[in-house]
Write a sequence for this structure.
């Protein structure tokens, strides 16, 4: 994976903006930012200590060619997809999508940090949801609780016990999901075929982009 | 109109008849007003009421009429009797609408109305019908000074409207700055690419236009006269002088770029690879002529990377360089970056800015440049160092908050603009104006002390050029009345009056052409120009009473008054705007207008019934500027914002026209207080006569000593700054002041 990182770095030399424009999804929007800072000001996670570079700075760093600083940043993974920035951007830059695009690109070339929580969530969520076409909440919760070991997982589960029982009583949570049962999509085959087609299209788009 | 016959009309409409005892008002007009004829009418502004007045004028020989109905600002179309002298008693907005309809208020409201009737009667008797200015000229040729975008636009627009134009250009070609541009910022959809500068087309249209006479390599050597009859001498290349008769003048002398040599930290002059925006236009033009890409001046190699430094020597808070924004150079840098990107997308172009300001449709243009790959970075450049055939640009990145640098082939500095506004006459005249009765300085000495060349070479006593305002731009009001200057019939258009781009300058030039045409037409009819457009009155002076103190000549905001060979004031009526500042300034009160004089206001002050000291009914005189304060009071009435019944309001043309005799007369006559309402003055002035309120306030600031001499509290004369929008706050201010006055003992001068 890190070979791909080196390959890209060599290919684009000092032109990181061009690299992002050609390789990252929605990367062509980076140049359109006018540095007003509305995205950073609107971001609900901006107070978080892990947020080293808000979107405005990520955009500026890319234009200034600071490849290492961007790829080492936590910024793009901190996005919670609330779409505040997307809605408010006076330049109609799809900031949320650009952040995801950069994060995805960093992951693709092997530069995403290990055990990054938001990335872990999105991967787990994706696998979980695509299996049956519906989210298996119990298994999803389990995989998040036990991410940092069995002790931490049990502790967290005990903490949330009363909430879980309440949900079960109200019929909002099926404990049998732990065994792979529970609600499913009617046409699982159809969903899988649709996802396979989407993956094929995406791969084709990416391949075409890389050739530019 | 051999015999004077006075008449008063009392209207009963709009509830005046039910709120007031109009029969008593009729008695007041007859007994105290001493009017020859007094009539009541149920609805005076109706066709029937107007016909009644007209009938009295035609058949009864009425020459002076006091219409006691609504405000003088209302129903002016119905009450249009140009052949007679007319005053208005404001019973509606000034009385019933600002008083509560209660039993206890009835008495004071009625007293207020009776006073306004007496005042209207007294005022009209002191008036005569103005005949119009006789010493006028009817030349309808427009002089445009400056052949750039603004000047050419003014000339073409005036010609299109059917007027002759004389266009004077200092250089050998029309076009000004625009002519030096390789391309200009786009002026039409989709605002995505630079377009042709448009100069060749305009020059061709001017050359083909038989209404426009062009003088190239020429300057204005002398401007004499007044609107409608300027005599202008034009110095042409051969050394000869051409004479032109001119009706009005537009000064469109534009700007010069701020001298980049004052910016050594940016490497200008140290390496040819640092240029200003004009320098880049020249490079682009030369490159295009040779069909080559834009090259480095140092070695002629094509430019591979370029940095644009915005705000170089402008928007400077330290006071070293220009403090203001040029208004166009962000768009210009975007355009110049496109010169590079459009020819070769691989050229690195970066714009370093602190705030990118793209007026008009510049935002679309900015976006287009971003799409083309121009990099915009928020940063402040600290230094540009020559580095072989390139430059090192050191700057602070304001987003990432770090000092950094870039190696580039070419640096373009966006330096600001300096207006070509000629000699700063105020700088030379200021000490003289402060000590008003100073001896008459010859204007020639003033010119000699200033190194800048005069543009208009006016033969006015006040100096050879137009007065300047903030940062040396020609004075003009940004919002309310652009183009208007303090020299009647002379208009400023384009970047000489404020920083602006080509499109704005063209709009400006069109507006100025229209104002100039109005001025010529009004001058031809002997009427005033803005803001009292159409006023036929003009100042007359009783020279036998004049003491040659020169206050009028010094204070006139419009330079209308010169001096004759015997050093008496010489009025140029066509230059006069009828503000009355001269009348307010005159210590011996020899200056007056037919329809506005020391007497028209003075007799109103005296007409008010001042109750004795035991009645507990104080009297407060309000002298209100008719442009802002009086309409604000009228609108307060329309909104039924009530105020104190003991005030009596007299509109004045400008605070500058207030003569201190009115104040001393009022106080001697037993008034308890005088409130003065004028517009804001200073840099953000709102005065329609620019300096009127300021001069008036300066004059009235001396009243304190008089008050002390009379053993009166200094608060008895109170100055309020009023804007036309103070509809709700103004009544409150009046009430607060009235409360203060009531806290004082009654004026000791009552009953004398």
């Amino acid at each position: 994976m890190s070979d791909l990182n080196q390959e890209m770095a060599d290919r684009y030399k000092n032109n990181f903006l061009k690299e992002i424009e050609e390789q990252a999804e929605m990367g062509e929007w980076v140049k359109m930012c006018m540095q007003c800072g509305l995205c950073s000001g609107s971001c609900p996670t901006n107070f978080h200590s892990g947020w080293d570079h808000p979107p405005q700075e990520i955009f500026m760093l890319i234009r200034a060619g600071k490849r290492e600083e961007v790829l080492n940043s936590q910024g793009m993974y901190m996005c919670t997809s609330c779409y505040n920035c997307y809605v408010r951007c006076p330049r109609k830059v799809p900031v949320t999508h650009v952040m995801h695009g950069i994060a995805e690109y960093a992951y693709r070339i092997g530069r995403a940090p290990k055990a990054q929580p938001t990335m872990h969530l999105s991967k787990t969520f994706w696998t979980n949801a695509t299996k049956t076409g519906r989210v298996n909440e119990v298994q999803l919760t389990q995989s998040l609780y036990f991410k940092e070991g069995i002790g931490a997982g049990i502790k967290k589960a005990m903490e949330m016990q009363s909430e879980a029982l309440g949900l079960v009583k109200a019929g909002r949570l099926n404990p049998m999901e732990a065994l792979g049962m529970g609600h499913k999509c009617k046409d699982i085959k159809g969903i899988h075929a649709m996802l396979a087609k989407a993956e094929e299209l995406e791969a084709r788009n990416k391949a075409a982009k890389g050739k530019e | 109109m051999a015999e004077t016959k006075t008449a008063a009309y009392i209207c009963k409409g709009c509830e005046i008849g039910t709120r007031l005892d109009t029969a008593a008002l009729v008695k007041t007009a007859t007994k105290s007003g001493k009017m020859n004829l007094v009539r009541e009418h149920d609805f005076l502004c109706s066709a029937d009421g107007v016909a009644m007045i007209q009938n009295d004028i035609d058949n009864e020989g009425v020459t002076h009429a006091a219409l006691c109905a609504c405000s003088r600002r209302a129903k002016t179309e119905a009450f249009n009797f140009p052949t007679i002298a007319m005053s208005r008693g404001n019973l509606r907005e000034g009385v019933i609408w600002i008083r509560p309809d209660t039993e206890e208020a009835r008495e004071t409201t009625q007293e207020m109305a009776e006073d306004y009737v007496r005042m209207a009667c007294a005022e009209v008797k002191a008036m005569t019908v103005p005949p119009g200015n006789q010493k006028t000229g009817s030349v309808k040729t427009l002089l445009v000074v400056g052949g750039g975008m603004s000047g050419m636009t003014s000339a073409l627009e005036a010609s299109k409207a059917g007027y002759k134009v004389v266009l004077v250009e200092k250089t050998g070609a029309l076009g000004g700055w625009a002519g030096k541009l390789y391309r200009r910022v786009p002026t039409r959809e989709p605002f995505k690419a630079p377009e042709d500068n448009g100069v060749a087309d305009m020059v061709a249209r001017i050359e083909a236009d038989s209404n426009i006479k062009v003088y190239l390599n020429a300057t204005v050597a002398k401007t004499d006269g007044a609107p409608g009859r300027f005599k202008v001498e034009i110095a042409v290349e051969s050394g000869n002088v051409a004479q032109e008769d001119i009706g009005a003048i537009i000064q469109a002398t534009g700007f010069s770029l701020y001298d980049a040599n004052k910016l050594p930290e940016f490497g200008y002059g140290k390496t040819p690879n640092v240029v200003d925006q004009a320098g880049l236009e020249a490079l682009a033009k030369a490159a295009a002529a040779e069909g080559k890409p834009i090259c480095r001046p140092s070695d002629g190699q094509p430019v591979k990377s370029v940095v644009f430094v915005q705000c170089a020597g402008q928007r400077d808070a330290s006071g070293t360089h220009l403090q203001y924004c040029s208004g166009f150079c962000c768009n210009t840098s975007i355009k110049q970056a496109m010169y590079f990107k459009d020819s070769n997308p691989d050229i690195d172009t970066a714009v370093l800015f602190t705030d990118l300001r793209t007026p008009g449709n510049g935002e679309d243009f900015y976006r287009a440049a971003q799409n083309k790959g121009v990099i915009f970075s928020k940063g402040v450049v600290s230094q540009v160092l020559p580095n072989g055939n390139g430059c090192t640009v050191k700057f602070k990145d304001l987003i990432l908050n770090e000092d950094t640098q870039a190696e580039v082939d070419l640096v373009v500095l966006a330096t600001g603009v300096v207006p070509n506004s000629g000699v700063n006459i105020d700088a030379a005249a200021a000490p003289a104006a402060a000590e008003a009765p100073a001896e008459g300085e010859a204007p020639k000495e003033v010119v000699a002390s200033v190194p800048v060349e005069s543009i208009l070479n006016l033969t006015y006593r006040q100096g050879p050029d137009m007065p300047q305002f903030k940062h040396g731009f020609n004075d003009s009001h940004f919002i309310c009345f652009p183009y208007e200057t303090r020299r009647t019939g002379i208009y400023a258009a384009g970047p000489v009056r404020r920083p602006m781009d080509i499109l704005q300058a063209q709009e400006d030039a069109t507006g100025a052409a229209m104002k100039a045409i109005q001025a010529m037409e009004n001058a031809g009819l002997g009427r005033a120009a803005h803001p009292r457009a159409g006023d036929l009155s003009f100042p007359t002076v009783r020279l036998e009473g004049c003491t040659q103190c020169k206050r009028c000549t010094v204070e006139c905001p419009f330079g209308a008054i010169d001096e004759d060979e015997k050093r008496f004031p010489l009025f140029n009526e066509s230059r006069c705007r009828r503000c009355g500042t001269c009348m307010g300034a005159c210590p011996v009160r020899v200056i007056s207008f037919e329809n506005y004089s020391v007497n028209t206001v003075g007799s109103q002050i005296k007409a008010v019934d001042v109750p004795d000291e035991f009645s507990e009914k104080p009297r407060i005189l309000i002298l209100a500027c008719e442009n802002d304060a009086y309409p604000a009071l009228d609108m307060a009435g329309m909104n039924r914002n009530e105020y104190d019944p003991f005030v009596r309001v007299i509109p004045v043309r400008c605070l500058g026209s207030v003569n201190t005799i009115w104040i001393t007369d009022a106080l001697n006559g037993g008034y308890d207080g005088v409130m003065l309402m004028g517009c804001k003055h200073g840099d953000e002035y709102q005065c329609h006569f620019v300096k009127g309120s300021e001069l008036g306030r300066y004059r009235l600031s001396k009243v304190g000593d008089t008050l002390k001499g009379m053993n009166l509290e200094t608060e008895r004369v109170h100055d309020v700054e009023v804007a036309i929008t103070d509809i709700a706050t103004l009544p409150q201010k009046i009430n607060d002041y009235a409360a203060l006055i009531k806290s004082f003992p009654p004026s000791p001068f009552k009953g004398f």
Observations:
- Chain B touches chain A at residues 356, 366-367, 370-371, 373, 375-378, 397, 399-400, 404 (CB under 8 Å).
